[in-house]
Each structure stands twice: as structure tokens, then as C-alpha cells.
């Protein structure tokens, strides 16, 4: 055997095999082959932060198999993913399998297509140690924070806690938003809408206008009494058109997807978590259907633009094709390496074709369709709206009506009735009116409203905020969101994050004693420095050292001065069956449970059934929240083991059985 190719997964291996043929043996490493130990610190601070990598026990068999086939190969090709994580995996494989005489090549491609694979193998390169250093720096930095800070949280807050550098910043955003909501004072206000029609039969071509001014000043109506006074005046007023403004509004398509915008769109449109989105996207990529899914670039290759423009002209219509291709510029200040945006690899392959691909399900197809539409739409002509604004006078009052109609649908043609963006102008079509034209009053519609606090973060808005702050990178958004949920620092209600008492206690402690570590600008600056390491502009070890020295001093100080945090006790509303004292709700490794408030004298515990008010589709029993031995949440029937219904996703009442 002459050529051995190593990739991360069996699916990717099978796809590559189709293009490379029998001259290449392709093996999967099954992810990372070396890592820092779980049971030990794994970083030698005295030796300039030297990482102590080990081969995990569950990877030893696979590593031995790879060593055997590598020994029979003349050339080793490392075809891991085209980012820092993939570069690090390639480096670790080379460290284990290679020697000074080994013929090792690194091949990089951003899509698994025949053309891209052959081109990559024609121009192999060496492993990029700058990218490896950036990945190592992040890994060591996170290990230093987690391994050093977690024991302090055990001692001062609660046993079993762990802290993460970037996860803590995300949690801080959620906690601070919750405090904003708690401090928010609701205020009443009123909006008066008026239904009007051109002079003639009442209701003919009627439209709605909103009261906005009185005596030339902006009108703010604070209560019903004020609203009633204005209504009384408006009932007696004469209405007349004072101004008609028409303009053409162009609505341009969005750029192709980056990792964060894909996760946001999948959350908003498809109800998918960031974690699920990335799992589905990974499968689509490994099947050769989309480009690499971890990217913060909106760049498209010349070939991709040419292909999609040809498709638009042939299958959508020449009127929808711009004269010149659209070029998008990344907003992110730290676009990593020369990646492309996320797009489909073959624009002629629509979702109906993807449904036939073995190993993919309807969720893969839904995500593919989202990516396909965004890619095609980004190279289509803009939509054109005719927007009309009508100002109406009623004695000393000014009312305004705004409406728009689609003149040319442009890229919106792909989406039909789907709403692409919230906050659009009202789509009412206004009648043709002339200045000074009298109007009939059809009805007055006063409405009571209340100011609302800022909304809680959901997955989409939290990712957007993290990206705006410069915190996290394409590979980290999904793990951040998963981690804060798995640690029970937050809960989800109607897809929105609510911090638990535990999460609030952790953040209050960290803000008090480690404000620098979870400062937004500090965390963003660390991300910038990791990017500089990847570009070869900074050395990784001095970067870690400049962080660790003040951090270690702060740890020592806090150990001495910080007092034990008193956690708020949540009563369960029932008595202990053994001693009669109150049962309280606690959070353990596998979620919430009930424990006796008399602990340690009374050690009684019992499971807490978290109901979601959904009946089991199999036997009609109550669906409750359950947890696996590893702490992962799932939903199961209360009548287990008689009823075996279980689901990873939260049932809504109509869900079918997913797993048993």
C-alpha cells in the first residue's frame, strides 16, 4: 500500500473514497487522538506551560490500528478539517504516527467534491504550526481557568461546580439580562389608530392611520383618561390628506451563511439548537453536500458565483440576475483563515434530491434547504417595494399611514410567504389619494399597551450578542450554549434562557472576585490574541504567561478573603417521610432532586418529577424530564418501565415516538 489518508470520521472517509479510488486507503481517526488528561491538570506551568498530552483510553485501540496501517504506507496524507481544530488533530496524528523520515502531507479542502479533493491532493502543504499553536493556546488557557477556578467554586459556592472562561461570560450576559428584567418598571401607554376611507361609501378602500402629533408636537398618551379625551376630539374632527409621499424601497438579499448566522437562522426558522444545527451541518458537509460549516467568512469562490448565476438565469429567470455578481464583505473583525461562506456544493441539487441520500433525515433536508435558499438568494436581484406614506390632518392632530406593496419580488421569490425579517413595514395597500382630499372616519381604535422589559436571550440572540462583542469563534458557539445548560446554570423556557439560582450565585461570585476574567472586553481581547497567534504575529506561551500570573495571584487572594456563598433554599412544598422536616429542591450531577432540609442528620432523597404538561403519545401518561447517567436531558413517560417512550427533543403533544 502506497497512500494512507486519515480523516476524522467514517462518513467523511466513505465520501473521499468515492473520489480517490483504490490507490488510497482511507481511515478515520474518530476525532482527536490525543488530549489533556481528564483526571489531571495536564499543564506543566514550570516548563513554560508545556501541555502533557495523553492518548485517551477509549482511543488507544484505534491509535494502535492506525499505527499498524501507517507502518505499511509509503505516504501519509492528513485530510482533517480546514480549521485550527482540524490542524491540531493532523499535528497530533503526525506526532504519533510519523518520524523524521516519514513522508507526511497535509491536504486542505473546504468542500468534499471531486474537483476540490483532487486539487487539494495536487498542492499538499506542511502542517501549519501557527494554527496548531492557536488551538493549543485556547486549550491550555481554558484548562488553566477551569482546573484552577473550579475547586474554588466547590469550596465557596457549591460542590461539584466547574467554571469555563468563555462559558462564564455567556452566563453573565444571561444573568445580567435577568436582572434588567427584574428591575424593569412597566409603564402604560396608548396608541390610537383610526380607520379612514376616501370620501364616499363608508368602508370603501379603508385604511389605518396612527395618531402621532398634536399641535406639531409628538404625542405620548399615558393613560385611558388621556386617550378618551383625544378620542372625543377626533370623533368631531374633519379628516383631510395633507401630504402623500411615494418612494421606491429596495430590499437587498442577506449575505451567505457564516456559522453564527446559520445557527441563528436555524434557531429562528427551524427551532433547532446550535448543537443540533452543527451536528446536522457536519453530516451534510461529510456527505459532500455543503462547504465546511465552521467559518466566519461571507466570501464565495469565483466558481461558486459562476455556477449560481447560471442557475438563476436558467431556472429562475434573467430578470432575477444582477448585471454584476454580488460581493459581500465580512463584518467580523477577526475572520479566520481564507474560508468560504457556508453554501451548497452543487446548486442544481435541491432538497428533493437530498431526501434520497442514505443516512440523512428530514432535519438534514430542512437545514440543507435553508442553506440552498440563502446561497441562491444572495446572488439574485433585490426586491423592489413601492412605499407610500400618507399624512392626514384632523384639526390640530396629525395622523400617518404607511403601506407598501411588492413591485418586483427579486430574491424574495425563493421564500414565498416566509417572513425573512421581523419589523417590516405594514403591508397594507393604501388607496390612491390626492393632497387636500377629504376622508371619512370609519372608526377609532384606541389600544392600551405596556412597555416591556428587554427580552430574555434565546440561542439565536445570545450567539448574535457574543459575536457582536467579539467573544467566541465559529467552533465555540455551540459548545458554549450546551455547557451552560448541562451544568444547570440556566434553564430553557419557551426556548429562552433563564438563569438558575445556581447560575446567578456563580456569576455574582465571579463578578465580585474575578471581574477581569469575565469582563466582556477582556475576553474579546483574548480572542484577538488567539487570532494573532494563528497569523504568526504572537507567541502562544508568553500570551498564556501574561494571563496566568495575575490570575494565580487573584486565586490566592480570593481563597483567603472570600466567604462561603449562601445559596437560596427552594422549598419543595412537602415534608420528609422519614423525619417530617421540609424537603428542599437541590441540583445534583443529573439535575434536580428532592432532599431533606435536615441533612446531614437525615439523608433522605427522592427524584423530582419535572412535568412539561404533555401527555405520552403511547399510553397517555405524563411526560417528565429525565437525565442520563452522563447528565444529558431527555423526556420520558412517567409510567416507565411499562411504557418505553423517550425523546431527546421536548415533545409538544403531537410528537411521535423517537427512541425507546
From TrEMBL:
GO MF entry, a single one: zinc ion binding
Catalysed reaction equations from the record: ATP-independent breakage of single-stranded DNA, followed by passage and rejoining
Record-annotated active site: 292 (o-(5'-phospho-dna)-tyrosine intermediate)
EC number(s) from the headed UniProt entry: 5.6.2.1
Site annotation Interaction with DNA: residues: 32, 138-139, 142, 147, 154, 294, 487
Domain Toprim: 2-112
GO biological process: DNA topological change
Top EC class of this enzyme: isomerase
All copies of domain Topo IA-type catalytic, residue ranges: 128-555
Keywords for the protein's UniProt record, in alphabetical order: DNA-binding, Isomerase, Magnesium, Metal-binding, Topoisomerase, Zinc, Zinc-finger
InterPro entries found in the cross-reference section: Topo_IA, Topo_IA_2, Topo_IA_AS, Topo_IA_cen, Topo_IA_cen_sub1, Topo_IA_cen_sub2, Topo_IA_cen_sub3, Topo_IA_core_domain
GO CC, alphabetical: chromosome
Residue segments, region Interaction with DNA: 162-167
UniProt-listed Pfam families: Topoisom_bac (PF01131), Toprim (PF01751), Zn_ribbon_Top1 (PF01396)
SUPFAM superfamilies reported in the protein's UniProt record: Prokaryotic type I DNA topoisomerase, Zinc beta-ribbon
Subunit structure: Monomer.
Described purpose of this protein according to its UniProt entry: Releases the supercoiling and torsional tension of DNA, which is introduced during the DNA replication and transcription, by transiently cleaving and rejoining one strand of the DNA duplex. Introduces a single-strand break via transesterification at a target site in duplex DNA. The scissile phosphodiester is attacked by the catalytic tyrosine of the enzyme, resulting in the formation of a DNA-(5'-phosphotyrosyl)-enzyme intermediate and the expulsion of a 3'-OH DNA strand. The free DNA strand then undergoes passage around the unbroken strand, thus removing DNA supercoils.
Family (UniProt): Belongs to the type IA topoisomerase family.
NCBIfam families documented for this protein: topA_bact
Protein name: DNA topoisomerase 1
Native species: Candidatus Daviesbacteria bacterium RIFCSPHIGHO2_01_FULL_40_11
Amino acid at each position: 500500500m502506497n497512500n494512507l489518508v486519515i480523516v476524522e470520521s467514517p462518513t467523511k472517509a466513505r465520501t473521499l473514497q468515492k473520489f480517490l479510488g483504490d490507490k488510497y486507503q482511507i481511515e478515520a481517526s474518530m476525532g482527536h487522538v490525543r488530549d489533556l488528561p481528564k483526571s489531571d491538570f495536564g499543564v506543566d506551568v514550570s516548563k513554560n506551560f508545556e501541555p502533557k498530552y495523553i492518548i485517551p483510553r477509549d482511543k488507544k485501540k484505534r491509535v494502535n490500528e492506525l499505527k499498524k496501517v501507517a507502518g505499511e504506507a509509503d505516504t501519509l496524507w492528513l485530510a482533517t478539517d480546514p480549521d485550527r481544530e482540524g490542524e491540531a488533530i493532523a499535528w497530533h496524528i503526525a506526532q504519533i504516527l510519523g518520524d523524521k523520515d516519514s513522508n507526511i502531507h497535509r491536504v486542505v479542502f473546504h468542500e468534499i467534491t471531486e474537483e476540490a479533493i483532487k486539487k487539494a491532493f495536487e498542492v499538499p502543504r506542511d502542517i501549519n504550526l501557527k494554527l496548531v499553536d492557536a488551538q493549543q493556546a485556547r486549550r491550555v488557557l481554558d484548562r488553566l481557568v477551569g482546573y484552577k477556578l473550579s475547586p474554588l467554586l466547590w469550596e465557596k459556592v457549591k460542590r461539584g461546580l466547574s467554571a469555563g472562561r468563555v462559558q462564564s461570560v455567556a452566563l453573565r450576559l444571561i444573568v445580567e439580562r435577568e436582572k434588567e428584567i427584574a428591575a424593569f418598571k412597566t409603564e402604560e401607554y396608548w396608541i390610537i389608530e383610526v380607520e379612514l376611507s376616501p370620501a364616499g361609501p363608508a368602508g370603501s378602500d379603508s385604511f389605518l392611520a396612527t395618531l402621532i402629533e398634536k399641535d406639531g408636537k409628538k404625542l405620548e398618551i399615558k393613560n385611558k383618561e388621556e386617550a378618551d379625551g383625544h378620542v372625543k376630539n377626533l370623533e368631531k374632527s374633519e379628516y383631510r390628506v395633507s401630504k402623500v409621499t411615494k418612494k421606491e424601497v429596495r430590499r437587498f438579499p442577506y449575505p451567505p451563511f457564516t456559522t453564527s448566522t446559520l445557527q441563528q437562522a436555524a434557531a429562528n426558522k427551524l427551532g433547532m439548537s446550535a448543537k443540533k444545527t452543527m451536528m446536522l451541518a457536519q453530516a451534510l458537509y461529510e456527505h459532500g453536500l455543503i462547504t465546511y460549516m465552521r467559518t466566519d467568512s461571507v466570501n464565495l469562490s469565483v466558481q461558486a458565483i459562476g455556477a449560481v448565476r447560471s442557475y438563476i438565469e436558467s431556472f429562475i429567470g434573467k430578470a432575477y440576475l444582477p448585471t454584476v455578481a454580488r460581493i459581500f464583505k465580512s463584518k467580523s473583525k477577526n475572520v479566520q483563515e481564507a474560508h468560504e461562506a457556508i453554501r451548497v456544493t452543487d446548486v442544481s441539487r435541491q432538497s428533493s434530491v437530498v431526501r434520497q441520500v442514505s443516512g440523512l433525515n428530514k432535519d438534514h433536508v430542512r437545514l440543507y434547504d435553508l442553506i440552498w435558499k440563502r446561497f441562491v438568494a444572495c446572488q439574485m436581484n433585490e426586491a423592489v417595494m413601492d412605499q407610500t406614506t400618507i399624512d392626514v390632518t384632523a384639526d390640530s392632530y396629525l395622523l400617518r399611514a404607511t403601506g407598501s406593496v411588492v413591485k418586483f419580488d427579486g430574491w424574495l421569490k425563493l421564500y414565498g410567504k416566509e417572513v425573512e425579517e421581523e419589523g417590516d413595514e405594514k403591508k397594507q395597500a393604501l388607496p390612491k389619494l390626492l393632497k387636500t382630499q377629504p376622508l371619512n372616519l370609519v372608526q377609532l381604535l384606541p389600544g392600551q399597551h405596556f412597555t416591556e422589559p428587554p427580552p430574555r436571550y434565546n440561542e439565536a440572540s445570545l450567539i448574535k450578542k457574543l459575536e457582536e462583542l467579539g467573544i467566541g469563534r465559529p467552533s465555540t458557539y455551540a459548545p458554549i450554549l450546551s455547557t451552560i445548560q448541562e451544568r444547570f446554570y440556566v434553564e430553557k423556557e419557551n426556548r429562552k434562557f433563564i438563569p438558575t439560582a445556581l447560575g446567578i450565585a456563580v456569576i455574582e461570585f465571579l463578578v465580585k472576585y474575578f471581574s477581569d476574567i469575565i469582563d466582556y472586553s477582556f475576553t474579546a481581547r483574548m480572542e484577538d490574541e488567539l487570532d494573532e497567534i494563528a497569523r504568526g504575529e504572537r507567541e502562544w506561551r508568553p500570551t498564556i504567561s501574561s494571563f496566568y500570573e495575575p490570575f494565580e495571584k487573584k486565586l490566592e487572594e480570593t481563597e483567603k478573603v472570600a466567604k462561603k456563598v449562601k445559596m437560596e433554599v427552594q422549598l419543595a412544598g412537602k415534608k420528609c417521610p422519614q423525619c417530617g422536616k421540609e424537603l428542599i429542591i437541590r441540583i445534583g450531577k443529573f439535575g434536580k432532586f428532592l432532599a431533606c432540609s435536615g441533612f446531614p442528620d437525615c439523608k433522605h432523597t427522592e427524584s423530582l418529577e419535572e412535568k412539561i404538561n404533555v401527555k405520552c403519545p403511547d399510553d397517555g401518561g405524563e411526560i417528565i424530564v429525565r437525565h442520563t447517567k452522563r447528565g444529558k436531558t431527555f423526556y420520558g413517560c412517567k409510567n416507565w418501565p411499562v411504557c418505553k417512550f423517550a425523546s431527546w427533543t421536548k415533545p409538544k403533544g403531537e410528537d411521535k415516538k423517537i427512541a425507546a
